[in-house]
Amino acid sequence: MSEQDTKTNTEEEKEGQQGAAAAEDNQRQEDPIGDLSELEKIKKELEAEKAKAAKELKEGEEEEEDLREVDYLQKLITLSVKFDHHVGVYLMAGYIDCGLKYNHMLAESYLKHLVTIQGFLRLLEKVDGVTRESVTKDCIIRVRSVVQEIHTNIVKPVYKEVGLMKKKPNMENLDNFKREWNESLNELQDACDFEYQILDVKKFMVD
């Protein structure tokens, strides 16, 4: 084979390779289905990641809301215990200091009611959803009703009698009761501010 023939064959091979590369490029440009499939694959992966992130966010928000509800229940339980303590300790001692008759049976009936509400609230810590929300609000209303009865039938009478006394008795226990009672009422007012209504409890404060 002559040198000229060898050169010719080499040039033909080179032209053949270039032609194949050009044909492949033309195929990509003329038939973009492969590119679209790849884009669709990437799009689906992104959508899956987005859905996963949204789910994790929702679960986190639900968990945070659940923790807030449990904290709310704990505060209500603490409040009902406080009202029980205020009446059973400070108010009863205040009656004794003033030499006034303390109606144990009436006070005990109110305190038992508060203890019953505490039991309901503790059970609600193990319940989820709408049931817990509705029963919690019912318990708040019941606490308010008991507080109102205590204020009307036990608290107001003793302070009225003290106001009529010419010689003031030892007021330490009644002063302690007044301070603690009013502070607890302020906390209960926050619990009574529902989205659809506000139940006023500040009118049960001791002046």
Provide tags for this entry.
5 helices; disordered N terminus; 207 residues; 0% strand; mainly alpha
Describe this entry's structure for a reader:
The protein has a domain at 72-204. The chain is built from five helices and no strands. The protein has helices at 3-30, 33-98, 104-124, 130-164, 172-191. Helix 2 packs antiparallel against helix 3 (104-124) and helix 2 runs parallel beside helix 4. The radius of gyration is 39 Å and the shape is elongated.
Largest β sheet strand count, sense and barrel closure: none
Q: Can you write the helix and strand succession as a string? A: HHHHH
Q: Helix tally? A: 5
Outline type: elongated
- Helix share bin: over 70%
Tell me the Rg in angstroms. Answer: 39 Å
Number of strands: 0
Secondary-structure blueprint:
Blueprint (H helix, E strand, L loop, with lengths): L2 H28 L2 H66 L5 H21 L5 H35 L7 H20 L16
Helix pairs in contact: 2-3, 2-4, 2-5, 3-4
Brief write-up:
With 207 residues, the protein is mostly helical. It has 5 helices and no strands. It has a domain at 72-204.
